[in-house]
Automatic annotation (TrEMBL):
The lineage of its organism: Bacteria, Bacillati, Bacillota, Bacilli, Bacillales. One of its GO terms (biological process) is proteolysis. Coiled coil: none annotated. This is Endopeptidase LytF (Cell wall hydrolase). The keyword Signal applies. Belongs to the peptidase C40 family. Keywords: Hydrolase, Protease, Signal, Thiol protease. Gene3D superfamilies: endopeptidase domain like (from Nostoc punctiforme), PGBD-like superfamily/PGBD. Residues 184-303 form the NlpC/P60 domain. GO terms for molecular function: cysteine-type peptidase activity. It comes from Priestia megaterium (strain ATCC 12872 / QMB1551) (Bacillus megaterium). Residues 1-23 form the signal peptide. Its EC number is 3.4.-.-. It is an enzyme of class 3 (hydrolase).
């Protein structure tokens, strides 16, 4: 018996599971039995193509499988009811979209395709910044607002359904009252909002007008003054965003006070930034200040 068990253990150690290298809607195969946000986006795409008539739920059931099979047969694909790379590319390639990148566009990416999406969002009144090609929190918020207004899965990711809707939706001039209510504030708006809290005391861990720490102040101002969610701590703020050679209004500026990025503020222009200082509370300071200048690490944009 001991010998048999040893043999079984040896055999099991030699089992190699197959590696799935295909990608569907960005990063995985989609098939029957799955529940996933990507499935909901797939269902939205199939509906736009007139193949899926049920409610998009995110569950890959028999109705979704039948719709996929129908699409595969009509496009001379292997009819297995599974959305792999070939089916995904066919879904994208059959789109009327003017942005044709075969991958998902999501937070943290930088590409020409992202810049095109930003321009589309700007044309429709959802994106007030200059298109840069960087997918930051402002772009993510704009995408989510657009998705919410157009009955799409609100995940802040530009997949085929969102892309189709962007290219087919009318401009902001035909629905400005709805679009404008959803747009995020500009950098100047965020700066103006931040100045309302000058004099609020410093409170370690504080994230409200009763008291802020430096990152709590930034988090609160961007969220409540611009509808933009940024990371809560200085360390995670520093890891996100796009480096800027010189700070622009609305950029986050970072300082090393303890070894590594440990303090941050919002650049307001003219060499000044607003921040929650431990000894001053919320105040405006100069980057050329004798204390801050040698500790300055750089700036990053979240737009």
């Amino acid at each position: 018996m001991k010998k048999i068990i040893s043999s079984l253990a040896l055999c099991s150690s030699l089992i190699v599971l197959p590696t799935i290298s295909q990608a569907a809607l960005g990063d995985k195969l989609l098939k029957e039995g799955m529940t996933d946000p990507d499935v909901k986006e797939l269902q939205d795409v199939l509906r736009q193509k007139g193949i899926f008539s049920a409610t998009s739920t995110g569950y890959f059931g028999s109705i979704t499988k039948d719709s996929v099979l129908s699409f595969q047969r009509s496009h001379s694909l292997t009819a297995d009811g599974i959305v792999g790379s070939n089916t995904y590319q066919a879904l994208i390639g059959n789109s009327t979209s003017t942005v044709t990148n075969g991958t998902l566009l999501k937070y943290g990416m930088t590409s020409n395709e992202v810049e095109k999406v930003q321009q589309l969002l700007k044309d429709k009144g959802y994106f007030n910044a200059t298109p840069t090609g960087y997918f930051g929190t402002v772009t993510q918020t704009a995408v989510m607002n657009f998705q919410r207004d157009h009955g799409l899965a609100v995940d802040g990711i530009v997949g085929p359904a969102t892309l189709n809707a962007l290219n087919n939706a009318s401009s902001s001039s035909t629905g400005s009252s709805t679009v404008n209510s959803s747009t995020q504030a500009t950098a100047s708006d965020i700066v103006a909002y931040s100045k309302k809290f000058i004099g609020v005391p410093y409170v370690w861990g504080g994230t409200s007008p009763s008291g802020f720490d430096c990152s709590g102040f930034i988090y609160y101002v961007f969220k409540n003054g611009g509808g933009v969610t940024v990371p809560r701590t200085v360390a995670t703020l520093y890891q996100s965003g796009k480096n800027t050679s010189t700070p622009n209004v609305g950029d986050i500026v970072f300082f090393d006070t303890t070894g590594g990025p440990s303090h941050a503020g919002i650049y307001i222009g003219n060499g000044q930034f607003i921040h929650a200082g431990s000894s001053t509370g919320v105040t405006i300071a100069s980057l050329s200040n004798s204390y801050w200048a040698p500790r300055y690490l750089g700036s990053k944009s979240v737009f």
